[in-house]
């Protein structure tokens, strides 16, 4: 009989795919409301949380809502059920609803928000718009008895370890013998106290990023049979994954700004956008950053963008961009609604990986507060 999957166990898998450590320090990602120890019945993805979204989740039978924007972005000093957020908190607890947020960690994720925006625009030669750091690479060497090699390797690979460029599940193995003598304080999995043992083992080698070290160590401790597993973490000079925000790339063929604006509206199902620049300008190189990205306008200029797509652009930065020849499409925050479909795919892949048949719905509620006349 298959045991019920608790929400916290699903979220553990989700966080291996969308790590919370990628979020900015000022952000509040992860569990927002609810008891994650309850069984998972259904999942719904949404850009924002409001009462209508909660009602929709209840109607669909989804007890885990994954939003992009955190409902607890600003701390609550009190829970007053007569307020907007207080009503939401009350309704969640009365209906066993859990709310979880993947915000700037999803924005900064390779394959996350900004890659998905670039993909939908059919950009080529895609690069990071704003490089913030480059992860250091580490070689993980772990020594394990043959009896437990498969379980340990599968657990490491399932967590995302073993990725090398466009290849996944990369590992090199070497057979050898391990020799050890358990002391009186030991509780050996193999062997006897004060008797030196010689055991056939295999050395597994993986290339990992420095931010995967804690994850790898936890998996080794969980799946390795020895009370003191032997493993090495060897720093390398290889450059690892570039971490940053936004993407820049080229259109398949140049178009006028006027045509490109219509393309953006159609692609992202937007009623209207605010624009800066001449309609007749030819657009080839495009920078895009979901959310509030006006402070990165000069990065778009430095990387020779013809147009910059973002949200929440204010008056004077828009003037500066215009004077410097950068066209802007302010598509607002609702541009990020693409995450509903993309996070649905991530959740479905996880459930398939762990062999669970749970429905993942997309919220149909339009949470955009703006309308266009």
For the sheet with most strands, the description reads: 8 strands, mixed
Contiguous helical run count: 11
Q: Overall 3D geometry?
A: globular
Domains, number:
3
- Topology as H/E string? HEEHEHEHHEHEEHEHEEHEHEHE
Any idea of the CATH class of the largest domain?
Alpha Beta
Query: How confident is the prediction overall: mean pLDDT?
Result: 93
In the sheet with the most strands, the strands line up as 6-7-5-8-10-11-12-9
State the distance separating the first and last CA atoms.
57 Å
CATH fold label of the largest domain? Udp-n-acetylmuramoylalanyl-d-glutamate--2,6- Diaminopimelate Ligase, Chain: A, domain 1
The name of the CATH superfamily of the largest domain reads NIF3 (NGG1p interacting factor 3)-like
In the CATH hierarchy, the architecture of the largest domain is 3-Layer(aba) Sandwich
Structure class: alpha/beta
Q: Any idea what the radius of gyration is?
A: 25 Å
* Share in helix: 25-40%
How much of the sequence lies in strands comes to 25-35%
Model regions low in confidence, pLDDT < 50 over at least 5 residues = none
Q: How many β-strand runs?
A: 13
């Amino acid at each position: 009989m298959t045991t019920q999957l608790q929400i916290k166990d699903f979220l553990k898998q989700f966080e291996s795919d969308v790590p919370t450590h990628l979020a900015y320090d000022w952000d509040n990602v992860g569990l927002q409301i609810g008891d994650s120890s309850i069984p998972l019945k259904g999942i719904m993805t949404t850009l924002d949380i409001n009462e209508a979204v909660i009602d929709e989740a209840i109607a669909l039978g989804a007890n885990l809502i994954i939003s992009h924007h955190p409902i607890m972005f600003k701390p609550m000093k009190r829970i007053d059920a007569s307020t907007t957020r207080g009503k939401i908190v009350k309704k969640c607890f009365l209906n066993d609803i859990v709310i979880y947020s993947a915000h700037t960690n999803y924005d900064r994720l390779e394959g996350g928000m900004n890659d998905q925006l670039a993909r939908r625009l059919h950009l080529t030669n895609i690069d990071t718009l704003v490089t913030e750091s480059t992860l250091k690479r580490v070689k993980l060497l772990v020594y394990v008895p043959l009896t437990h090699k498969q379980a340990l390797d599968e657990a490491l690979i399932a967590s995302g370890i073993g990725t090398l460029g466009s290849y996944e599940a990369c590992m090199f193995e070497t057979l050898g013998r391990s020799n050890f003598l358990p002391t009186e304080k030991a509780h050996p999995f193999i062997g006897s106290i004060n008797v030196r043992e010689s055991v056939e083992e295999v050395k597994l080698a993986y290339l990992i990023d420095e931010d995967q070290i804690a994850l790898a160590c936890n998996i080794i401790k969980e799946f390795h049979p020895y009370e003191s597993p032997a493993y090495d973490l060897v720093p390398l000079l290889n450059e690892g994954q570039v971490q940053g925000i936004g993407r820049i790339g080229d259109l398949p063929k140049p178009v006028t700004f006027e045509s490109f604006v219509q393309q953006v509206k159609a692609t992202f199902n937007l009623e209207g956008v605010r624009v800066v620049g001449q309609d007749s300008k030819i657009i080839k190189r495009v920078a895009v950053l979901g959310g509030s990205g006006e402070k990165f306008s000069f990065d778009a200029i430095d990387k020779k963008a013809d147009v910059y797509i973002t949200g929440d652009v204010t008056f004077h930065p828009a003037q500066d961009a215009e004077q410097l020849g950068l066209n802007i499409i302010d598509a607002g925050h609702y541009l990020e609604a693409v995450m509903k479909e993309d996070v649905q795919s991530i959740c479905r892949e996880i459930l398939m990986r762990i062999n669970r048949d749970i429905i993942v719905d997309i919220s149909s509620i339009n949470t955009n507060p703006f309308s266009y006349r």
